[in-house]
Design goal:
Mean pLDDT: 96
Number of helices: 5
CATH topology: Deoxyribonuclease I, Chain A
Radius of gyration: 17 Å
Order of helices and strands: EHEHEEEEEHEHEHEEEEE
Structural class: alpha+beta
CATH superfamily: Endonuclease/exonuclease/phosphatase
Oligomer: single chain
Helix content: 10-25%
CATH class: Alpha Beta
Number of strands: 14
Length: about 260
DNA sequence: ATGGCCGAGATCCTCGGA
């Protein structure tokens, strides 16, 4: 079973690229972030024509997350944490793979820049709420996959020039510690687990030829609970969509489950 | 060392992103 996470930076502006990707890569479930639209304007028909069901938690102009799934999925929930700003950043579902029940969590973590503003404290509070809730459910749900745009650069080697990011909300030590705190609840960063010495990115800014220069960041991640780790066959970052015409600034990350 | 790009919405610019 293949599960992909991709920050598409507008599902409507990106629809042709997304459809090309789905046809080529054939994921069972696609978790998308930053759909930048309300549910009523979501391109359901485009996905329906490819044989996919859509589960959308949208918002006008900003944010928004969704599951695109070949099979129908149950237990869709848009209220994993209480968001004081009511932004659409988390959608969860319950899936069954080979008779194992898995909770699937699709997240779009706040950016948090610039630091020393309310945007940064919103990110910190958001991460704290997410950690607290995840700790709570882990006592009953042992099989959890968290995927999405975490807006966290975990380590120095996960960014082309970490010195530029030391005072950035994506790499600030306080934020990286929150990411570690989440992992310490009982998860693995799957990409790093399978790639101890390989450094790839999932995001390249539109500006200044970042893609051409490979000035990237690894900020899109899959975390799986320890209980599930042996069921993971592999993970890969698919760079092809980032090189296309009219790309998202993020590229898909693909998780393969036994 | 600096500046550079996109998308959405209601214009002809602002905000947000990372």
């Amino acid at each position: 079973m293949k599960i992909t996470s991709w920050n598409v930076n507008s599902v409507r502006a990106r629809i042709l690229n997304i459809k090309d990707y789905v046809k080529q890569s054939n994921p069972d479930i696609l978790m998308i972030q930053e759909i930048k639209t309300e549910e009523k304007s979501f391109p359901f028909d485009d996905f329906d024509s490819l044989g996919y069901n859509c589960y959308v938690y949208g918002q006008k102009s900003y944010n928004g997350v969704a599951f695109i799934s070949k099979k129908k999925i149950d237990g869709i929930d848009n209220n994993y944490i209480k968001d004081p700003k009511k932004q659409s950043r988390i959608i969860t579902a319950n899936i069954i793979n080979k008779s194992i029940k898995i909770k699937l969590i699709n997240i779009y973590v706040p950016n948090g820049n610039p630091i020393n503003t309310e945007k940064y404290t919103y990110k910190l509070n958001w991460l704290n709420s997410f950690i607290k809730k995840t700790k709570k459910i882990l006592s009953t749900d042992k099989n959890i996959i968290i995927g999405g745009d975490f807006n966290v650069i975990p380590e120095k080697n996960d960014v082309y020039d970490y010195k530029k990011y030391e005072n950035d909300a994506l790499f600030k030590l306080e934020i990286r510690k929150k990411y570690q705190e989440l992992i310490n609840l009982g998860f693995h960063d799957v990409y790093r687990y399978f790639n101890k010495d390989k450094y790839e990115y999932t995001f390249w800014d539109y500006m200044a030829g970042s893609w051409q220069k490979n000035n990237g960041l690894r900020i899109d991640h899959f975390l799986v609970s320890n209980n599930l780790l042996d069921n993971i066959k592999g993970i890969s970052i698919n760079k092809k969509p980032r090189g296309k015409v009219k790309p998202s600034d993020h590229t898909p990350i693909e998780l393969e489950i036994a």
